[in-house]
Amino acid sequence: MLKIADGDMLPDEGIDEEAIVDRIYEAIIEQRLPPGTKLSEASLCSAFNVGRMRVRRSLLLLASRGVVELQNNRGAYVAQPTMTQALEVFEARRTIEPNVARLAARRATETDINQLVAHLEMEAEARRKRDRHLAIRLSGQFHVLLAKVAHNEVMERMVKELVTRTSLIIGMYGSPGTSNCHDDEHSEILQALRNMNSDAAAALMEQHLRHIEHEVDLTSERKREVDLVSILSGDNS
Amino acid sequence: MLKIADGDMLPDEGIDEEAIVDRIYEAIIEQRLPPGTKLSEASLCSAFNVGRMRVRRSLLLLASRGVVELQNNRGAYVAQPTMTQALEVFEARRTIEPNVARLAARRATETDINQLVAHLEMEAEARRKRDRHLAIRLSGQFHVLLAKVAHNEVMERMVKELVTRTSLIIGMYGSPGTSNCHDDEHSEILQALRNMNSDAAAALMEQHLRHIEHEVDLTSERKREVDLVSILSGDNS
DNA sequence: CATGAGAGAATTGTTAACAATAATTGTCAA
DNA sequence: TTGACAATTATTGTTAACAATTCTCTCATG
Prior knowledge:
By secondary structure, chain A is mostly helical. Chain A is 67% helix and 4% strand.
């Protein structure tokens, strides 16, 4: 239970807490850890083969980034963004990421472009293979990759946090089928980078973010009700 | 030594780590903790009357925000931003804060305006009284206050981090006399808020940030050399 | 006089035990 | 059967001791 890390089951000890944070980030982005999931210390200890201290530090870091909520004496839970928080996250993304795209367009080297092309191919591949988890994760990582190309680690960290929180928002308010991104829009942005057209890159990014935003219905909390229903109907053993 | 908290020397126990983080933030903004200062666990424990755990958690939080650097087995030091990091911080501020100002102009209520007016008066007062520490802190807090008025806690946290790191940058690369902000530019921004002129607010903020940026000389690291000299000349007991 | 080795002190990292709080189960009475 | 209450269990929060590493000071040596 609580299988966060896939693969290597063996000599995983000695893992540092940044790696733990990243693994949990990924699991959340892939929506394998839905909002509200309890992250008990014991589970995480055995999942990562580390002591309680590491787990505790990791949870604190996750909480400081709004991805996990620490409740006093009650433990850590995957955050459940409120409507207000969701609006704030989207607003922050619209503020930051268009400029990230602009800077990326100005600074992308040949190598960067190739890397982005390879990434988009992986995205397409994942979608072809119907690997939804992977597709969602790669889709989110595209945005982080852009920040990397923009050569600004400060903003890269911010984008990483915002992308992760967006996954939580989609998990709560999105309809079941929605993926994080339209892939074709990623291609368009990449095309703008190729053309070194920074204004276009920024505009396309803003448009792209608005599309993501319009796929979630923040006005109603029906998602949470649906959860209740599914629990009640699916749990009768 | 390491007098971070002023005032209340007595029953300060029970302080939670967010308060510790804020106190250190303030001390850094006021430039009472210059870049490179060692923050030993023992000092902080006695400074705040808390156990080692709290201090450790606080330092981790500060490190995750780029304000403190944790060196393995060697302890925590107030961060010394490199030239590259400084450029990134400024770039992030130019990305985020103009839009923060724009949103603030749209959303400021009468109460908000009054609060900002009061804040500017405190700034002027501090400058009149030649209270440099207070003046610097209030000057930085103006930017955070704007984010609060914009009603976006996500961006507020980002601005807080960026303002603090800017203080470090000024401490390292600024000439001794430079304060963080020109006060009159704050007034101009406030005037734009009053007029509900969001475009003007954004433009003024961008201009303001460029001015701050131009007051530090990132091309040379002379500041660090000065530090070295002062250390060598002042330490011969 | 400078340099390096080494012992001791100080500081940080980790573990484990203990205390405090919350969740769960079981019991009893209405 | 249901609801409240008590005892047990599980989980989190805290403290203290221990281990490991780094720092500092001394002293011998080139």
